[in-house]
Write a structure and sequence with these properties.
Immunoglobulin-like, 6-stranded mixed sheet, 26% strand, 3-stranded antiparallel sheet, 3 helices, single chain, alpha+beta
Length: 220
């Protein structure tokens, strides 16, 4: 418990020992500078006579990383300093100025330094968002193209079914006409022997009559 209280006491003493040496009025968060031109830093309410250094830093507010020294031993009562931005400064939107030396520091908000030609710094988050949107738009387009292909096959299937039905219809009509047509007797059908039997019967009757006529004539 004693060690915890000791750490807390040390942290409180460090925080209380920090001094915001000036109140910065420029640049404000979102200010845009151009490489090769000038940037003016202004402040009020100076708590010191001399600002030990002004530093250009880059990165998240809690973990700013040193980039370059802008100036040293600046008269705090002048309340401004103009910096000639090098033309080869890397473009970025997460720059900040640190005024003073730890623990007596003052910070600006994040500002942007764009390239000398005026082009905005590249944003990795923007490019990832663009690629995600492109892949998400590609998925609906693929789905729409596949859905568009399905109906195109249905008319073909319907046409095939209609063709099959049309092909079957003449066959069915032919079958119906054949079934409805009267049967034609062939030359080998049974009535032919019946006609031959009738002829034989008639011949026999004629022969019998002739014999009877001859017999009658002989008796006379």
């Amino acid at each position: 418990m004693k060690s915890i209280f000791a750490v807390l006491a040390l942290a409180v003493s460090i925080v209380s020992a920090q001094v915001n040496i000036v109140s910065i009025t420029s640049p404000l968060t979102g200010t845009v500078y151009t490489a090769g031109k000038t940037a003016t830093i202004t402040w009020i309410d100076e708590k010191v006579d001399t600002i030990s250094q002004i530093v250009l830093a880059k990165g998240p507010p809690t973990t700013l990383q040193f980039v370059a020294t802008v100036a040293q031993n600046v008269d705090a009562h002048s309340r401004s300093y103009t910096w000639n931005i090098p033309s080869d400064v890397q473009p970025g939107s997460d720059y900040a100025f640190e005024l003073g030396t730890s623990p007596n520091l003052s910070f600006t908000g994040h500002f942007t330094i764009q390239a000398a030609d005026g082009s905005a710094p590249a944003s990795s988050s923007g490019s990832s968002d663009n690629s995600a949107s492109a892949s998400s738009s590609a998925a609906p387009s693929a789905a729409s193209s596949s859905s568009a292909q399905v109906p195109s096959q249905q008319p073909d299937n319907q046409n095939q079914n209609q063709n099959q039905n049309q092909n079957q219809t003449p066959n069915q009509n032919q079958a119906a006409s054949i079934s409805n047509s009267p049967a034609v007797p062939s030359s080998s059908s049974s009535p032919a022997p019946q006609n031959n039997a009738g002829l034989k019967t008639t011949a026999n009757a004629v022969g019998a009559l002739m014999v009877a006529g001859v017999a009658a004539a002989a008796m006379l």
